[in-house]
Design brief:
By secondary structure, the chain is an alpha/beta fold. The protein has 19 helices and 28 strands. Strand 12 and strand 13 form a beta hairpin. It binds 5'-O-[(S)-butoxy(hydroxy)phosphoryl]adenosine (WT7).
Length: 641
Amino acid sequence: MSTSHEPTPGMEKHPLFHPPEETLRNAHVQDYVKVYQESIDDPAGFWGRIATELEWFTPWTSVLDWDPQTYTGRWFPGGTTNISHNALDRHVAKGYGNKVALIWSGDSGEERVITYSQLLDSVERLCHGLHSLGLEKGDRVSIFLPPTPEQVISMLACARMGLIHSVVFSGFSEAALKSRMEDAQPKLLITADAGFRRGKEIPLLQTARAARTGILSIRNTLVVRRKDPRFPVDASSGEKAFDELLEKNRKKGSFPPAPMGADDPLFILYTSGTTGKPKGIVHVQPGYMVGTYLTTRWVFDIRDSDVYFCVADPGWITGHSYIVYGPLLNRTTVLMAEGAPDWPDPGRWWKLIEKYRVTVFYSTPTAVRLQMRHGEKWPSGHDLSSLRLLGSVGEPINPEAWMWFRNVTGGRLPIMDTWWQTETGMHMITPLPATPLVPGSATKPFPGVEVDIVDKNGNPVPDGESGLVVIKKPWPAMFRTVFKDPDRYRQYWTEIPGMYFSGDSARRDSSGFYHLIGRIDDVIKVAGHRLGTAEVESALVSHPAVAEAAVIGKPDSLKGESLKAFVILRQGKKPETEEELSSLRKDIRHHVREELGAIAQPDEIEITDWLPKTRSGKIMRRVLRARELGLPEGDTSTLED
Ligand code: WT7
C-alpha cells in the first residue's frame, strides 16, 4: 500500500485552513455538523426535501424502497421525472433561456458559446432525429465522441427520450470500444470524423467503423463532422451526418421528455474492476439526478454568476456528473475544454480561467503535479482573481500538491478534495466550502452519506488505524446494477455483509477527518484513471511473445501510480541481444496500446522467468509489489515453492 499520500503527522488534530469570510457568508451550508446530523437522523426527510427542489411529472410515493436481499435501492419510487427536463426546460421556463450553458474551447483555441435555449433546441432536434431512426425508450446508444458540445447534446437527447447512453472515452482503442459495445448492444453509435489533441488529428471514425463490424444490433452511425463539414458519410452502411439530422429537424418544435421512474436507466458507464472484463455501471434517472444536483450545489456553492470549469472529459464519470448533469441541473455556465493541459503551452488552463473569468475550477492531482513541474510562472502570468473555489478528484492529492494549488491561485481559496467513484455517482467524502480543511484529506462525509472504516469482518477499526472504506446506507445516486451481471453488483455488498465496499482503504483521524490511502483490490489508479491489473495482463498475454504476465502499480511522483509489467516470454521468443530486447519491449507496449488505449500502456516491462503464485496458480501481485518496492512481503504461506 502506498504511503506517499499520507498527510503530514501533526496536521490532523488541528485543521489548518479555515474558509475566507466571503466564502462563509455565502455558503449554502453554514453549519455542517447540524446539517449532517439531521440528514443522518432522517435521511428520507432530508433527501425528500431536496428532491422537491426539482420538477416531477408525478410525485413519488416514498423516498426509498430498499431491498436488503438484492441490495436494490429504488429511490423515489412511484415518481416520474426527466433529467434533461430539469437540466434545460426548467431553466428556460423560468426565463434563463439566454443564460450561457456551455462555453467550449477546442484543442486549437476555437470557441463556441451555447445558451440554455440553444442547448434545449439542439437536444430536441436531435430527439426528433433519433425518433425518426426508430430509437425507443430503453435502447442503448454508444457515444464515442471527443469532448465537444455534440457530446453533451447527445447525452441529453438520450436522457430526454429514455435511451440509455454508454459514453466511451475517445482515447480508447478499437478493441476497448468494441468490447463495450458487445456488452451494451447499442442500436446507434454516435462518433465524429476526427478528434484533436495537441494539434494532432485522432481518427475516431476509422476506429468506430472497425469496432462496429460484427455488432449486429447497431443500425446506424451518426457522424459529427468535427474536422470537415463536408465529410462524405457512408450512407450504405447506415451512416448519417449529425448536422444534417439536426438541420432536417429544425422546425419540428418541442420534443416531450419521457417520464422516467425509479427503475429507468439513464446510462451505462464501463469501468475497470478486478477481472479482465470492464463492468457496465448502471445509473437510473431520479436518484442520480437528486444526488448530482445537490452535491454540485453544496460542494461548489453554485451561484448564478458562476463560470464553472471542470477539466475532466465527459467520457468518465466526473464528466457525466460534474460537467454535464450536476452543473446543468444547477443552471450553471460550464466551461469545457478539448485537448491537453499543456498544449500549445502549459498556460492553457490558466489562460482559460483568465479569459472566461472562471470562478470554480475542478481539477485533478495529476494535473496539479504536472503544472507544478512546469512551474509557477505559468499561473502567475495570468489574472486568476475571478476564482473563488478549487476542486480535486480522482486520486489522493498529496499535501505538497494541495499547497501548491492553493498558493498559485492566491493562497486563500478552499480546495474541495472530493472522494467518490463511478459506482457512487456523486461525491461521498468531501469538504464543503465553509468547513475547515486539512491538506491531503477529503475531510468528512457529505450530508446524507454514512461512511465508516472497518476491518474485513465489518467491525469498525479504531480512529487512526487504516481499514476499508464502506458506505453503510443507500444514497440517491447509487448505481442500480452492473449491466447484465447482477452477481457482480451483489459482490459489492456481500464482501462485507450488508455494506457497500468501495475497494479503497483509508484512515479516520481523531478529529473525524478521512485520509484516503488507495485501492486495496487489483485496481490501479494511473493519473486518476482506473485500470484493472487483469485487463492489462490479458492484453499482455495476447501478444504472441508473451506466455504469462503480472501487473503492479508503483508510486509515481507525477501520475500517483505507474504501471509495471512482469512478463514471462514464450519458449523460443527470448531475444538474443539488447537491441532485440528493447524492441520487443516497445512492441509489447504498443500492443497494449492497441488493445486497450494509451492510458493502459505499462511504463516499465521486466522480462522474468518466474512469477510468485499461490499453490492454486493465482499470481500474488502483492508479493511482486513488495519485492519491487522493498517492503515487507506479508503473509506468504500460500506461496508455492
Ligand atoms: C477511485 C474511483 C471519482 C470520480 C473519478 C474517478 C479514487 C477518487 C479520490 C480522492 C482519493 C480518490 C479512489 C476511488 N479516488 N477520488 N479525492 N481521494 N482517492 O472515478 O474511476 O470510479 O475511480 O478513485 O480510489 O475508489 P473512478
